Amino acid sequence: MQKGRAGEIDNDPGVCARCAALGPTCCHLDPVDSEFCFPLSEMEKNRILDCSPISGGFVLQANSRAFVDNVCRLFPGEEDTVRTVFAESDSHFRLAVGDDGACRFLGPQGCTIPRESRPYYCRLFPFWVVGGEVIHFDARICLARREASSLPQILNSIGANRAELRDLYGRLRLAWGLPPARGMQSVKKGF
Ligand code: SF4
Fold first, then answer.
1. From which domain of life does this come (predicted)?
2. CA of 104 to the centre of ligand 1 (A)
3. Does residue 103's CB lie within 6 angstroms of at least one atom of ligand 1?
4. What is the pLDDT of residue 148?
5. pTM for this predicted structure
6. Residue 118 main-chain phi, psi, to 5 deg
7. What is the mean pLDDT of the chain?
8. How many angstroms does the Cα of residue 123 sit away from the middle of ligand 1?
9. Of 146, 155, 123, the residue nearest 44 (C-alpha)
10. What is the pLDDT of residue 37?
11. pLDDT of 6
């Protein structure tokens, strides 16, 4: 799954609402690619369960070679750590999708999970952090990406800032079981 700031469409007349009106968003995934959905930590899953009445929202997925290779691409230079955290003999939870590829938590007005309880990956997308620098994925499904030609423009379009994204990225690393990235500010233990 690409992820979902489309969750903000309820009160957002901006780019995420316009993206949702056009068709599939970052909260959709081709069901045949579901094994490549980002992993959910136990903590993230439990936080969703604490606030969502929706059942059947998660799938236990084997750590396939292709999945682990995909996660490795997110953390260049940390492949050995990633392969330890996501051992191929093990499994992980991910978000479940319907036959149409929509995340089970996606409602008519966007994500049904309160923003602060959504998976970190959802809250980061379409941004990521590499070497302490905020970058963006070249995700054509994201209207903000299609409309903008530079990172500052995408940040402005979505209303995100680098400090918040770096903090979320640090929390995601902790949640996924990865050590703090070198040179990044530590995050508080509380989520
Ligand atoms: S959890 Fe919410 S924001 Fe994340 S993919 Fe599902 S609907 Fe979108």
1. Bacteria
2. 8
3. yes
4. 93
5. 0.90
6. -75, 155
7. 90
8. 9
9. 123
10. 96
11. 47
User: What's the pLDDT score for residue 14?
Assistant: 87
Ligand 1: nearest atom to the Cα of 1: 5
Q: What is the pLDDT of residues 150-189, one digit of tens each?
A: 999 999 999 999 999 999 999 999 999 999 887 665 544 4
How is residue 107 written in tokens?
A: 């409602």
Please tell me if the CB atom of residue 9 comes closer than 6 angstroms to any atom of ligand 1.
no
The half-sphere exposure of 67 on its side-chain side, counting CA atoms within 13 A, is 23
94 Cβ closer than 6 Å to some ligand 1 atom? no
CB-based contact 68:86 (threshold 8 Å): yes
**What separation in Å is there between the alpha carbon of 26 and the centre of ligand 1?**
8
User: In this structure, what token pair is assigned to residue 155?
Assistant: 């940040």
Nearest alpha carbon, ligand 1 atom 2: 111
122 CB near ligand 1 (under 6 Å)? yes
Question: Could you tell me the residue ranges of all domains in the chain?
Answer: 5-176
